[in-house]
Amino acid sequence: MNRFRTVVSVVAIGIVAGFLLEPAVHGSNGGAKEFRDDSGVLRTFTTAGEIDLNNPFFQSIGTNGRTCNSCHKEENGWGISLENIRDTFERTDGLDPIFRTNDGSNAPNLDVSTLEARRAAYSMLLSRGVIRVGLPVPANAEFQLLSVDDPYHFASASELSLFRRPPPVANLRFQATIMIDGRETFPGLTILEDLAHQANGATTGHAQSARDLTAQERQQIVDFETSLFSAQVRDDDAGNLSAAGANGGPDPLLTEPFYIGINDPFPNGDPTGKPFDANAFTLFNAWAKFASHHGGTAAARGAVFRGQQLFNTHPIHLVGVKGVNDELGVNDFVGSCSTCHDTPNSGNHSKSGPVDLGLTTAARRLPDEPLYTFVNKTTGETVQTTDPGKGLISGVWKHIGRMKAPSMRSLSARAPYFHNGSAATLLDVVNFYNTRFNIGFTEDEKRDLVAFLKSL
Fold first, then answer.
1. Is the distance from CB of 239 to CB of 258 less than 8 angstroms?
2. What are the structural domain ranges in the chain?
3. Is the pLDDT of residue 187 over 50?
4. Which residues partner with 161 through β-bridges?
5. Whole-model pTM?
6. What element of type H or E holds 133?
């Protein structure tokens, strides 16, 4: 498709010293900027050649002042960071459009009449960067809601409160599923059609629009979003991420091969019949020559390379993972990080294959999260979860808790991590997996993995 053409022009503005550059200021013909983030510099590459602020993506079409850009910031890889949210709250006394009670507050009926009331009402948005998603239990579900423990006394079977991080809208070329629970992925529709549906739903829901988007507005938003490629271009320790033969940064993403099911590791996965290659990431293969260096930029590049190798090939015994072990009929499936993050050099799962890693269990419940108890209508079995994931869309019992693998580029610009923002840092992410699957990473290996993840 021409929107993914390989020859484009992009204007890169010089880097300004400081933790975070000022918000991008574009004219109608302005190019994408570079931004400081937690570990270096981020850049957007757009196949349109420029960021068009006249696109409906940047327009307030609803009734509460929001735009798509309220939660999808260029400086955060077209997602949003907790730091950005907190800064916006302090700068506007919690009156910016992102702070709206329909889904920004812990419950839609909370008092927001004073600054301190707003600070309390939006505490989950301010502490973990999550937006409240209100969804009902499907009428034809294989289960019913037995009980709910909601600290905010709002959630019920007609509208569960689910707290989730806004997903980035860059690098959408590699998506097989729209939204973490797949609720905007429809049988018989293309991903582009799914995205158009999602744009309309976000406008009528998040922005509380009294009307649907026109067909033209939907297409303009989809064209804009699918033109965006975002990735880290510079690391504070390793330097330029495309130096010395490496392929970091957003530009190579335009020509990276992709189709639904590419490099899928499971039986009948890749539709071409091509076998799974655990080496899903090859961005930093050229830095293998630095793997044994000590000190300076060379050593930092060696750490990134070693982290990439760990991600690709370090054995992980996947046990008790719904969507893997039960579907394959095996108790122990030996894989690696790239088993679920299999899309080459992007890290998405290349097919709609959501899994349950155990993040939503009662044991991992955070104090401010609602806890739901469901009962199987046929067997009487019960399960407790803070987020039913795909189960709340399909109504299928075994889908409770399953969610898709997220995008992995521009990670440093959009902390915190996991669907509920429960991991403040990338090290927290690594520690979760290390504990969950008894991997046994050494401290050096953890550092190498984090160095790799920060470079994406």
1. no
2. 2-80+165-359+403-454
3. yes
4. 134
5. 0.91
6. strand 131-135
